[in-house]
Design a protein that fits this description.
309 residues; alpha/beta; Rossmann fold; N-(1-d-carboxylethyl)-l-norvaline Dehydrogenase, domain 2; 2 domains; eight-stranded mixed sheet; four-stranded mixed sheet; 12 strands; globular; binds pantoate
Length: 309
């Protein structure tokens, strides 16, 4: 199987490194040519909970060089999904499957619109990854990956993907209710990402401090209310307890949104807390705390330019 991971960020680098342990042909597609060449020559250095090791990963900036792919894993930020999917077209053939484990809601829809829903496999991962440098990543936390299709079907290729992931040490299972799963992950990101990005605190600290814990609880309660009104079945009986447990389990993690803010990069706020605000508006329910979190993160994003000036 030819597997192509698209995007050399924290999660893309970690996934490509692990998958390169398999007997499959694994590539990393990076739109930056110089960076792709560096990774192709030096591989990816991984440090963290899986030890210190180096993965030999083939990398290219040119989809034509890679050729037709059996599995393409989209690992770019949610706001870059459309451009990434347009870029992978030369590698797509009839049997290609596209997997997205990205944060937020909306990626499956974007990919489906461009390539057809039958090609798309969604999912969520609790793996922790911190970007250190191009070609260097910290495996910040182990965590389960769950994959599934929007129509609930489990075709044979999905079982193969599960088998490949598990064989390289990425604990993976299949779910028939991917919508419930993605919303459950969304609720976790709603509670953690914006709050850590605004306060610049690691995940564990926001449940230790009473001020941030209060905000986290309000934001999560709003998200759970929206999910309930939309009749989405969350996979946790007590979503709030789950979000707090994730904070504790990933206590020293710098959330992906805080990593973005520290690197002065655009965040995924539009695909996380802003989803709750938009859906709440449509349903006529309140999402005041999420609305404030969105506004503050947007303000931080717009401050990058001022800081450079
Ligand atoms: O986006 C992230 O950083 C992760 O999804 C999570 C679970 C919040 C852990 O840091």
């Amino acid at each position: 199987m030819r597997i192509v991971v698209v995007g050399p960020g924290a999660m893309g680098s970690l996934l490509a490194s692990f998958l390169s342990k398999s007997k499959e042909e694994v590539w990393l597609l990076d739109k930056d040519r110089a960076r792709a060449e560096k990774i192709d020559q030096q591989g990816i250095i991984v440090e963290g909970v899986s030890g210190n090791w180096q993965a030999k990963v083939r990398a290219s900036s040119n989809p034509q060089t890679i050729g037709k792919a059996d599995l393409i894993i989209i690992s770019v930020k949610a706001y870059d999904t459309k451009e990434a999917v347009l870029g992978v077209r030369p590698m797509v053939f009839e049997n290609t499957r596209i997997l997205t484990l990205q944060n937020g809601i909306g990626n499956i829809e974007i990919i489906s619109e461009l390539l057809g829903q039958e090609k798309v496999i969604g999912g969520a991962t609790n793996l922790g990854a911190t970007f250190l440098d191009p070609g260097k990543v910290r495996h910040a936390g182990k965590g389960e990956t769950v994959i599934g299709r929007i129509d609930g079907k489990i075709p044979v290729e999905m079982r193969s993907i599960r088998q490949i992931f598990n064989a390289v040490g990425l604990e993976t299972r299949i779910s028939r209710d991917i919508k419930g799963l993605l919303w459950s992950k969304l609720v976790i990101n709603v509670g953690i990402n914006a709050l850590t990005a605004i306060t610049r605190l690691p995940n564990g600290r926001i449940v230790e401090l009473e001020w941030t814990r209060r905000v986290l609880r309000e934001a999560v309660t709003e998200a759970v209310r929206v999910a309930k009104r939309k009749k989405i079945k969350l996979i946790y009986d007590d979503p709030l307890a789950k979000v707090e447990a994730v904070c504790e389990a990933t206590a020293t993690n710098i959330s992906s949104m805080l990593q973005d803010v520290l690197r002065k990069k655009r965040t995924e706020i539009d695909f996380i807390n802003a989803v709750i605000v938009r859906q709440a508006q449509e349903l006529g329910v309140a999402a005041v705390v999420n609305s404030v979190l969105v506004d503050l993160v947007k303000a931080i994003e717009s401050s990058y330019k001022l800081m450079e000036a």
